[in-house]
Amino acid sequence: MRSHLERFFVREWQRVSAWQIVLRPVSWIFSAIVWARRRLYSARLFRSYQPSVPVLVVGNVTVGGTGKTPVVLAIADYFRGTGRLPGIVTRGYTITQLDADAATVLRVNQAPANADSRLAGDEARLLARRSGVPVYAGSRRSAAVAALLCDHPNTGLVVGDDGLQHYAMARDVEVAVVDGLRGFGNGQMLPAGPLREPVSRLNSVDCIVLNQTGFDTRLSSRSPPAFAASLAAIGKPVFVMTYGNERFVALQRADTIRADAMVAMCRQKRIAAVAAIGNPARFFLHLETLGIAPASKHVFADHHAYDKSDFADIDADIILMTEKDAVKCDDCADNRMWAMQIDALLPDAFYEFIQKKIDHVTRPKAA
Fold first, then answer.
1. How many CA atoms lie within 13 A of 2 on its CB side?
2. Contact criterion met (CB below 8 Å) for 297 and 249
3. Whole-prediction pTM
4. pLDDT of residue 1
5. Checking phi first, is residue 52 left (phi over 0); if not, alpha (psi -120 to 50) or beta?
6. Which of 29, 104, 163, 323 is least surrounded by Cβ atoms within 10 Å, i.e. has the fewest?
7. What is the DSSP string of 47-83?
């Protein structure tokens, strides 16, 4: 039921529909609350936690998947290579279900059996497995940052995953990721549209990453050059991101094969693709661009917790999924399942830009 409802809203938010008029008054109230909250933090009537190290936040102004996680991983990998040890903080999908006062902080690590990893949710587990750096999850990100720095005092940079609207955590650099397929939908605030904050919020970020992966007119009527030009008109640096270096990992084994090997393996086989992510159409299209045409596609609600029953009726020789899906299949994987790993491909100019921003961050010396 939830998956159908999510897909309904995602589809309808891409256009203006008559039923949305009913929700406009709610959107105005939501917009007013968002504006007032940001003003209160800006005027320092609400306090923000300022850690002792620079904070870089990767977020977006729309709901749903835009590609933030690959960008966070790419940034963490880059700074680890420069010798500045990064740590990652994220909300953790299930945190608010565990602790009503939002005080819970989970220390996520790479071990599948780690209790905190399981409780933190799929995105946090993926970040921990892929990044190799400390990952801390908490709906109160300031508490997560404090715990991270306490446990890892050598941390030189905090990377916030999806924290653009979390003003209680002060930040030095803001990177906004924009989905080139969906753009800003119908341009309306929640719940009449997909916007968490108005598009004008992009005027205050440091740069924009345009996720141009798999742009296809079957999924979007937008012209890629025209949309990129509209973002450039905002006046902030725009860096185009694509995905690449695809490889496939067998969930029950340690086997990793290249994309061309998976394409060859899929010939004359029954292929199924499953996804429980914010934008499943992008994953399915990505498979098609590689030359893999699944005979069946199975969409679950974002963050869906898989069990064996989800796969029992899938008639396929090979089941393909994203890494985010795979981290939730430790207990129900079978020998048909493979996860596609990808890397965010960003220009050198992007890393040079954020490096310069971070290098210019100063903190007052302790008295």
1. 9
2. no
3. 0.91
4. 46
5. alpha
6. 29
7. --B--SS-EEEEE-SBSS--SHHHHHHHHHHHHHHHT
Residue count of the chain: 367
In angstroms, the CA 59 to CA 68 distance is 6
Tokens 């310069």 appear where? Answer: 356
pLDDT at 104 over 90: no
What is the chain's mean pLDDT, rounded? 89
- pLDDT, one tens digit per residue, over 330-358 is 889 999 999 999 999 999 999 999 999 99
Alpha carbon 213 to its chain centroid, in Å, reads 14
Torsion over CA: 358, 359, 362, 367 (sign): positive
Burial of 70 by CB count in 10 Å (0-12 exposed, 13-18 middle, 19+ buried)?
buried
State whether residue 112 is helix, strand or coil.
coil
pLDDT at 215 over 60: no
Locate all alpha helices (DSSP H) within the chain, ordered by sequence. Answer: 2-12, 20-42, 68-82, 95-98, 115-120, 122-131, 141-151, 224-232, 259-266, 280-290, 309-312, 323-326, 348-359
